[in-house]
Every structure is written in structure tokens, then in C-alpha cells.
Amino acid sequence: MISFHAAGVSVPDPGGDGPDSVLLEPTTVDLAGHRIAVIGANGSGKSTFLRLVNGLARPTTGRVTVDGKDTVRDVSAVRRRVGFLFSDPLSQLVMPLVREDVELSLKATVKNRARRREAALLHLEAMGLSHLAERSVHELSGGERQLVALTSVLATGQGIVVADEPTTLLDLRNNILLQDTLFGLDQQVVYATHDLDFAARADRVLVIDAGRIVHDGDPRQAVDRYRRLALDPGRGRR
Amino acid sequence: MRGHALLIGLRIPGGSPVHRAPLWLKYLVLIACGAALVLWRTPITAAVLLAMGVVLYAAAGRRVLAAWAAPLRFLWWVLALLGIYQWWMNGPWAAFTIVGGMVAALQLARLLLLTTEQSVIVEGLSWACSPLRGLGVNPDVVALAVGLMLRSIPAMLGCIADVADAARARGLQRNPVALAGPVVVSAVAFAHQTGDALAARGILDHGDGLESGTADGETA
């Protein structure tokens, strides 16, 4: 269970003497639920919110815990529980071959090289990607790359997957394929997206606006709320 | 980031004896050849090792042999300058010894990269560094760093191509000094993303977050 305990993030004003700029107001929320979507404008604090969950960002006030483990003090324990999928799969694929990249995720848990190779192939098979095992990550299509990145994330065996706009770079077909794959997982999935249809598939949707959760609950109402916020002519963009 | 620029120096898969040779043997041959070139600076050494390189490329298969000349397309002017200078200073045989020896060493080193999976190289390096553990060196970190370096060279070339294209699209000259700024910025961004991805996957498990509070990642 992911819990925010009055967790907030602010950074010093880049100019020097202005007030700190707040990326996320102190927030208290429990993220229970199998599929949770986070929507909000660019710069609203969505990414910061997600990055807090696995310790990629640290709260400057309050704390965030996953199954009771603090994301600052116990960051390795947290990362063993939470996998993170980025929008650009190329930045997270480290090894040149698909199979090698999955093997890299398994390095900590499977010491024997032959056994690790076998396990990597099994993970790829489970995702229906066996045919890509010996391909270079650079020659894959964007959709295939994102699925491989997801396989590498899942191979580490975490129970929670956090995805920051995972479908942004994908065409419609791959977008739907990735959505279906994410929704087919046993793991809890928390994702940010600008795709409102994708967001509406979640059990629970958070709307973040100017560093604050302004709606938490029913997907339809959340999407309506976000539309009203986004299209309100009285509001200047940050 | 562009795909094609990333293909430089990539492994060519295959089942030839060169591909299947164990990593230690490849390194042994490479080190022996390098030592020979340094110890016996004669045109004959250079010629023999150049020929040996071509034979080994051929033994590794048609596609590997076809890749033999690839780096010369980028490097010919450096080699030409060096060759002309040496010819002028020390005569044709010295020029051949130096330029031929350099090409021979470069090609043998490339052959290792072309015919070996990166995970095997990384694992081998990690093994080779394990005696340094007593000195506080983590062999896995060294091996991963080398792996990341190999991956970063083509990524940086892709970066430079992107920035140059962007400049040209705006009708700006390809002034190398003007390109340097954006290239450095995107190199740092690439390093940050890679670091975040490694941290998020718990590889190495340093138990350390990278930085606090980055804004939404849509700035680039």
C-alpha cells in the first residue's frame, strides 16, 4: 500500500530570493486500488507525485511509504516493491539486445548465467515477445520497445508498477496494446496520462492541479473535472 | 533520439568460430597483437597483423567482413594526415608502420565488439575487476559503467545529429561552437534519464535517490 503522509515537494526559487516554488503541496492520501490514474496539466505535479512513490524524487516535507517502508530511508526496499515505467523506453533500455536487457533486471535475483537467460526468455514469452529476444533494442518499433521496457520492469518482480505517461510516444494500435497489457497485469498499476479514455479505464482517478489533488475518486467525474479545469478561460497557464 | 545513428558499432550476430570463441581468448589475442605492434615497430608486423585482421573478419562471416571498412569512412582524413606527415618526416616505411599498425589494432579491437554480446563483455569485465574488490572497487559498477559508455557513444552521435538538424531547420549555420551548448544539455538530460532508469530498476541497488523534486518531464 502506497501512503503519502503530508508529503510535499518544493524547490528554491531559481532567481534566488523569491519564495520557494512548490511542485507538490503537502498531500495526504492512501493509494489503494488496483488501477489508479493520475491526470492533470503539464507542470501540475503529476510526475513529481509519481516519482515520489519509488524514491526518484524525495519529499521536502512529510513522508511517503510503501508497505510501511519509507521512500527515503528504505529506498532499496521500496524499489524492490515498485517498478517504474518511463514515457521514453529508449532511456530505460540499457543493454543492446532485448534478452540482455531483461537479464540485467534479473541479475540481482538469478546468479547463474544460463538460468538467468532461461528466466529472461520465460518473461518475454509471458508477454508474447519471444520473437524479439535476439533483436537489438534500437531496431524495434516504439510500441515493441515500450512492451520490452515493461517486461524488464516486471522481471524484477515488484508488486506495484508506476508508469509516467507510458503511451505518449505510441500510435493508436500500440497505445491500446500497452493499455490492455497493463490492465491484464496482476500487479497494482498507478499511471499518469494525458489520454482521457485511458484514464477513464481506471478504478480511481486523481486530478492534480497546481500541485494539489483536487479530485479523487470516480473516473467519469474526474475526467469532467479535469476538462472544466483545462478549458476554464479565466485561468492562466503556469 | 534517432535510431540510425545508434547502429554504429553494434554487434553482428553469428555462429562462426570467432563468435563462439571464449572472451578470454579474444582478449588474449587482442593484447598479444597490441603488444607485438608496440614491441616490434616494423612494417612487417603491421602488414601481418593487418592481414590477420582481414582473415579473422572473413572467418567471422560475410556480414562482419563487409563491416571492415566502416570506420575508415570517418577516420580516413586523420589517417591520411598522419600518413603524409610520417612519410615526409620518416619516409614511406615508417608511415606504413604507424598508420597500418593503428588500423590493425583498431580493427582487432572492433572485431571483439562486433562478435561478442555486450552482456558477455560486461560480465567478463566484472570478473576481471573482482580482484580489486579488496581496494573498495565494486566490479559490477565498473562493468556497468563500461556498458553504459558503449551505449552512450552512439546515443551522443544521435544527439549531435538531432541538434544539427534542428539548427538547419531554423536556417542556422552548422557552427560547431553553437552546437556545443545544446548537445551538452541533451547529454546531461540523457545521463539523468539513464540514471533515473537504473535507479528505478534497482540495478546496483545503491539505496540512494538521485535528486529531489524534478518537475514534469516534458521540458526537453
Rg measurement of chain A, Å: 19 Å
Structural class of chain A: alpha/beta
Q: Cα distance, first to last residue of chain A?
A: 32 Å
SSE string of chain B, helices as H and strands as E: HHHHHHHHH
Which structural class best describes the helix and strand composition of chain B?
Answer: mainly alpha
Largest interface: A-B, 53 and 39 residues
CATH architecture of the largest domain in chain A: 3-Layer(aba) Sandwich
- Average pLDDT of chain A works out at 88
So how many helices of chain A?
A: 8
Jot down its keywords:
heterodimer; A: 238 residues; Rossmann fold; 6-stranded mixed β-sheet; 8 helices; B: 220 residues; mainly alpha; 0% strand; disordered N terminus
Secondary structure: elements and pairs:
The complex is a heterodimer of chains A (about 240) and B (about 220).
Chain A: E1 2-11, E2 21-31, E3 35-39, H1 46-53, E4 61-66, E5 69-70, H2 75-79, E6 82-85, H3 98-106, H4 113-126, H5 142-155, E7 160-164, H6 172-183, E8 188-192, H7 196-200, E9 204-209, E10 212-217, H8 219-231
Parallel strand pairs in A: 3-8, 3-9, 6-7, 7-8
Antiparallel strand pairs in A: 1-2, 1-4, 4-5, 9-10
Chain B: H1 17-20, H2 23-39, H3 43-59, H4 62-66, H5 70-90, H6 92-115, H7 118-129, H8 139-169, H9 176-200
Helix pairs in contact in B: 2-6, 3-6, 5-6, 7-8, 8-9
